[in-house]
Amino acid sequence: PSPICSTSVTSAKIQVNGVHLHYQQTGEGSHAVLLLPGMLGSGQTDFGPQLKSMNKQLFTIVAWDPRGYGQSIPPSRDFPPDFFERDAKDAVDLMQALKFKKFSLLGWSDGGITALIAAAKYPTLIHKLVVWGANASVTQEDVRIYNGIRDVSKWSEKVKKPLEEMYGSDYFAKTCEAWVDGICHFAEKSDGNICQQLLPDIKCPTFIIHGEKDPLVPQAHAEYIHKHIKGSR
Asked: What single Pfam family name could you report for this chain, choosing any that match (predicted)?
């Protein structure tokens, strides 16, 4: 194929589990990779550099917008108790609908949690796993941190602007508040568990990355995940 073909990014929607999920796809490599964005994120806002620069001869890269995020609206985003499991099923079913038999997951933040659950629940489909800024439980300290970002008017312009442009200020503000409520529900359980019990079920090669200055996710979360996924790095 001409170089033009190999670098272009396809943007499309496909019906999965009763919703129309938006995704972007690029590259023609034999190793398929799904990029999973974080809270309120989309393929475009969270993975612009990866869609542009990942090796397109080695990889076929798909970045998705989870339901209610990015261009996967409608439906509006909501946060039932099983929203991470729902996203994990949507993500895996999306890749199967796109005819990928086996694929790797690169997830950050909420997308990292979604990727952990998907790798545990669908082990035959997941090739490799990379997560960063992920957590398998919610502590009281986390609840304090999350409540600190509840009001989007206090966010820095740099972080706020692309999301306001994508969602409009009303949907953005409401969805952020709903996310804080949804994630804090996990802390009401005695152990604050999101997916701790699933980590030992992850059998694929796993790489955990953590930013030392991550303002939202204390480093103990990354260490916990590393300790409980056998052979992870």
From this structure: Abhydrolase_1
